[in-house]
Design goal:
homodimer, alpha/beta, eight-stranded mixed β-sheet, seven-stranded mixed β-sheet, 30 strands
C-alpha cells in the first residue's frame, strides 16, 4: 500500500534544511521524495503547513526505569514521536539474569517502537552488590547472534577497564569480535585515565555534565550522549555542544524517564524542544535524535526521510515546539492526531513470564528482624541531601532507649536493605536522616542496581508491615502507617515493572508521594529516588547494602557504630 | 612497543582543528593523545613543526586498473599516505570469476595498506559482453563471511534495479541480510528514477559530476564519493560539496589511477591538495578521506588520531601541501622520510596463481582471421573523439581493393575484438577512425569490462603479429610494425596486472605511447584508453564487441555494412 504526504515540508537531516517536497511511502519503506501526486498513491494525506520529520531514537534508556513493560512504554512515548530506542535491560538483568534480557527481547518484539538491545556489561554492578544474577562474558557472548542486539551496554566498571581486568576486557573483545559496539559510562575521568578507558574501544558516554568534559570525549573520538532524563539532567551543562562541529558527534538520550514526566513533558521531543528554546538549531537537535543515533549504532536506512529508509515518519504541527500530530512506524499509522492506535502486545514464552514474575526468594519479615543491637553510643547515619544522589556521613549519639534508636523528632529513621534474590537472609540495617517521615514506613524494590528490598520507617511494626506487603505483591512500592497500607504500586515483573499504563502508574506514584508528604516528608525531598540510590555503593559517601554500611570513598564496609 | 610523537600538531577530524598534543601508540593502537612524555615510550619521535594526521582511505578503487598487484600498489600509494582502500575487484572477476576475487583477497592479506573488498555486483557488465565468468547472487553470497568483505560493489545495473529484476535485487538483499552495504553507480539519473534506485538501499555513488547531481544524492541519503582518478575527474564539478553541510556526507575516491599519475601527482593526498588549493578547508577534505570513509563502510576505530583507534598515522611536513614524510600502519613505520620500507609479499595459494595466470583460452591468430568480407560499399566506422570515451558512428565508402578496406590516409584503420576466455572463436571486426596510426598495429587485453583481446592496426600482418605476441605474453599491451614488436608491457595476471612496480610500469607505458606517437598517433589521442573502452557497450554511440558492432543508444547489434 502506498501513502502520499503532500504539501508538507520535509525535515532533511542531510542538508539541514526544510524541503517543500511530497513524500511517498510503500509498505514499510519510504520510496520517494519529490513531485509525487495523488496518482502515485492509494492513500493521500494532505499535510499542508506541517512538517515531515524522521522518528526520534533514544540512544540510551533503561525501559525498566519507566516501570512500564515495553508495550506500555511504546504507547507512552509514541505520541512524542519516539520510534526507536537503544535499551539496556540492566535493571531486570540484575534481578533475573539472562532470563531478564530474554524477557525484554520477547516483550519488545515487533513493537512499532523498535527496541534495540545492548547487553548489560556490569551485573552485578559492584562487589558490594548481592544481585539476582551474575553475567559473565561467557553468558553474554551467545546473545550477540540474536536480532536487535547492537552491542555491550554502558561499561560502568571503568576502574576494571583501566586496571585491564581480564573478564572486563573479554566482554569488550567479544562485542568487537562480533562486529558490535560498546557504550561507555565513565563520569569525570579525563586525560590519561580517559585515554586508557577509550583505548579499550568504548564508543560513547552519557555521563558528561560540562562542555569541557563533553568536548574532550568528542575530540577523543567518542559519541557524546546528551542526557536529559528524570534523575540526571545534563542539557544545560552541555548545551554548547549543539554548535558545530560538536553537534555532529552528539546524540540525545534519557537514560531513565518516569511515567509522570513522559506524560507531562515528553521524551526525546522534550529535549529537542528545550534545545530549540535555548536558541539551538532544530536541525542539529533533530539530527542528534535521528540519523546520528542510527550512525552511532550502525543502523542502516533508519533515521531520515529519504528513499530506501524505513518509513518511521512524524507529522509535526509545528517545528519549534516539536508538536507531534501523527506517527508512522514502518509505514503504519500508529498515532493519529496525538492518539495511539491499537498496539498488539507481543507474545512471551510462559517460561520467561514465570522467571520474571517470581523474583522473590525471601521470607516474610518478623519485627525482630529489624531490631538493631545496642553496641555503642554513637552511630554512622546516612544523611541524604534533597535533590541529590550524594549522601553524607553523619555521626551522632543514638538514644537507644527510645524506639530502638529511631528518633523522628531529630529526623533519625531506620533503614533496612533486605536481600531478596537468593534467600540468604542477608540484611543491612542502619539509620538515615533527611527524609522527614514523622510516622509510618515506606518500602521499595527499585533500588539500583541489585534491586533488593529497601525499607525506611519511623517504627519497626510499620516497616515489617510495609515490607511484607511488598513481598506479597511480588515487588513494588508501598507506604504504611499504624499497621495499615495507605498506598501502593505493585511492580510484579522482577519487582521493577508493572503491566499498567503510564497514566495509572503516574497516578499511583503521585498517591505514594502524597501519602509520604502527609506522613511528614517535605516537598523538596524525593524519597523514592533516595531509596533507589541509597544502596548504590558507587555514589559517595555513605550507603547501605545487604551487607551493611559502605564508605564509598574508601570502597569498604564500615561499622554502624562509630566508636567501634 | 610504545612510540611517542612529541611536539607535533594533531589533525583532529572530530573537532576540525589542530591540537598541540603528544600522541602515544602501543603496538597497533593509538593509546593516548595528551601530555605524554619520553618516560611513557620506548621510542620517541620529535615531530616539531609537523602534523600528525590519520591515514587516508580511498573509498572506491579498482586496483587492477593500476596494473599493479596489491603489494606493488601498496608500495606505490603508501608514500602518499594511503593506509586503506575499499577495492572492487571487478576487472579480475570478469576474467577469472570468484577465483579472481579470492586471488585479490589473498594477494592483499596483511598488507600495511588495509585492502577492504566489495564484491563485484555486475559480472558480466552487459548482455553484449563475453566475459570469463558470470557471478550470480548464489556465487557471491558465501563470500560475505570472509574477512575484509564490506559489501556489494558499485551496482552499475541501474536499469536492472529500476526494473526490479529478481537476480539484481537478490544480490542487494543478500548484502543487506549479511549486515553489509551496497555501493552505487548511476550517473545522471535523478528524480523518480533515482528514488526507485535508492529505495533498493544503495548507499553511495561515485559517478556524479555536478553540484546539483551530487546535492540531490546527499539530500536523498547517499554518501557522495567525489572521484578524481586518471580517467574520470569530477573534483572541479563537485568542489562546492566541500562546504557544509554537504562535506559531512562526502568521501574522496579515485576509481582508477594509473602508475604514472600516482608517481607524478599522488593518490588521495592529491585530491586533498587540489581541494585545499581551490580554497577548501583541509579539515573537511581530510575528514572526507578518513573518518567519514570509515563511517560510510562501518569500520570501527579507524580514520582518526584518537585513543583506541588503529595506529594508521601520517607525519606531514606541511598541512596545505599534504606532504607526507612518515607513515605508520598499525603502529609499524612503513614509510620513512618518503621512502617505503621492506614490505612482505603475501603468500598466495598455488591454485589461485595458476587460475589468474592462465586466463587465455584462444588460438593463435592467422592473418586470414582478420579478413573482412566485402559485402557492401559503405560501412559503419567507429569514430573516436580525442579525450573522450564517447564515440560517433561514421558511415563512409570503403575502398575494398586497397588493403582489405584499411586506408590510413583517410584515417580508417581495422579493429578486432577477439574472445579470449572460452575458446569460442568469436570475434568482431570493423573499422575505426580517429587513432591516426599510419603503420603498424597495437593490441591490448585491458578492455572494459570483459577484457577481451583488442587489436587496432594499419595492416593485417602487424595485427596478427602483435595479437600473437600478447597471447604469448599471457596478456598485456604491445605495438608492432613491419612484423617486429617495438614495445610491450606484459600483464600476465589475468591480462590485467603485472608484478612490476609503478616506476617500471610507468616507463613501459610511456614507451608504448612514444612508439605509437612515432607510428603516427597524435599527442592528444589516448590510444590505450580508447582501446580500454571501445568494447564497453554502455557508453554511446558505436562500439565493437566479440559479437560485432553495437549501437549503444538502441542497445542492439548492427551490421558493419551500412547498406545491408
Amino acid at each position: 500500500m502506498k501513502i502520499l504526504f503532500k504539501n508538507g515540508s520535509v525535515v532533511n537531516v542531510f542538508s539541514d534544511s526544510l524541503e517543500k517536497r511530497n513524500v511517498l511511502i510503500e509498505d514499510e519503506k519510504i520510496i520517494g521524495v519529490g513531485d509525487y501526486t495523488e496518482d502515485d498513491a492509494d492513500i493521500v494525506e494532505d499535510v499542508s503547513g506541517k512538517y515531515i520529520c524522521p522518528g526520534f531514537i533514544d540512544g540510551h534508556i533503561h525501559i525498566e526505569s519507566t516501570m512500564m513493560t515495553p508495550v506500555e512504554f511504546a504507547k507512552a512515548v509514541l505520541p512524542h514521536g519516539t520510534t526507536g530506542v537503544i535499551a539496556d535491560p540492566h535493571e531486570i538483568a540484575n534481578v533475573c539474569g539472562i532470563e531478564g534480557v530474554q524477557f525484554m527481547l520477547e516483550a519488545s518484539a515487533e513493537l512499532p517502537v523498535t527496541v534495540y538491545i545492548m547487553l548489560p556489561s556490569c551485573v552485578p554492578s559492584t562487589a558490594f552488590d548481592e544481585s539476582g544474577a551474575t553475567l559473565t562474558a561467557e553468558d553474554l557472548e551467545p546473545l550477540y547472534m540474536a536480532p536487535r542486539i547492537l552491542g555491550l551496554a554502558e561499561m560502568m566498571n571503568y576502574p576494571g577497564v583501566i586496571a585491564k581486568e581480564q573478564e572486563v576486557l573479554q566482554k569488550i573483545e567479544d562485542a568487537h569480535r562480533n562486529g558490535k559496539v560498546v557504550d561507555g559510562h565513565a563520569p569525570l575521568i579525563s586525560g590519561k585515565e580517559l585515554d586508557i578507558y577509550l583505548s579499550a574501544g568504548i564508543q560513547s558516554d552519557h555521563e558528561c555534565s560540562s562542555y569541557e568534559e563533553g568536548a574532550e570525549r568528542i575530540r577523543k573520538g567518542q559519541w557524546l550522549m546528551i542526557r536529559q532524563g528524570t534523575a540526571a539532567r545534563n542539557l544545560n551543562g552541555l548545551i554548547e555542544l549543539f554548535d558545530e562541529p560538536w553537534s555532529r558527534k552528539c546524540l540525545l538520550v534519557t537514560d531513565d524517564r518516569h511515567p509522570a514526566d513522559i506524560l507531562k513533558d515528553g521524551h526525546i521531543d522534550h529535549i529537542i524542544r528545550l534545545a530549540i528554546e535555548m536558541g539551538k538549531s532544530p536541525f542539529a537537535a533533530i539530527r542528534m535524535a535521528t540519523i546520528q543515533t542510527a550512525e552511532c549504532f550502525g543502523l542502516h536506512r533508519v533515521g531520515a526521510v529519504a528513499p530506501g529508509f524505513q518509513a518511521n515518519v512524524l507529522i509535526l504541527d509545528d517545528l519549534d515546539s516539536v508538536s507531534v500530530r501523527d506517527v508512522y512506524c514502518g509505514g503504519k499509522k500508529v498515532v493519529s492526531n496525538g492518539k495511539v492506535t491499537e498496539i498488539t502486545t507481543p507474545a512471551i514464552k510462559e517460561q520467561r513470564i514465570k522467571a520474571v514474575r517470581n523474583s522473590f526468594y525471601v521470607d516474610r519479615l518478623r519485627e525482630s528482624d529489624l531490631h538493631i543491637e545496642e553496641k555503642g553510643t554513637h552511630c554512622r547515619v546516612i544523611k541524604t541531601i534533597p535533590g541529590q544522589l550524594l549522601t553524607d556521613e553523619w555521626i551522632t549519639e543514638i538514644n537507644w532507649a527510645k524506639n530502638n534508636g529511631i528518633d523522628a523528632d531529630r529526623d533519625i529513621l531506620k533503614i533496612a536493605v533486605v536481600e531478596r534474590h537468593m534467600h540468604t537472609g542477608h540484611k543491612g540495617i542502619g539509620f538515615i536522616s533527611g527524609i522527614g517521615l514523622k510516622k509510618g514506613a515506606v518500602a521499595s524494590t527499585v533500588s539500583h542496581d541489585s534491586h533488593n528490598l529497601v525499607i525506611i520507617g519511623a517504627n519497626d511494626e510499620d516497616m515489617m508491615c510495609v515490607a511484607n506487603h511488598v513481598i506479597k505483591m511480588g515487588g513494588g512500592y508501598a507506604v504504611s502507617c499504624d499497621g495499615k497500607i495507605l498506598a501502593d504500586l505493585p511492580l510484579p515483573i522482577a519487582g521493577l515493572m508493572s503491566e499498567l499504563g503510564a497514566t495509572e502508574l503516574a497516578e499511583k506514584n503521585e498517591k505514594l508521594l502524597d501519602t509520604l508528604t502527609f506522613l511528614g516528608v517535605a516537598k523538596e525531598v524525593a524519597p523514592l529516588m533516595t531509596m533507589a540510590f541509597v544502596s548504590l555503593a558507587v555514589i559517595p559517601s555513605l550507603k547501605l547494602t545487604t551487607k551493611g554500611l559502605v564508605d564509598v570513598g574508601k570502597q569498604e564496609q564500615v561499622s554502624l557504630y562509630a566508636d567501634l
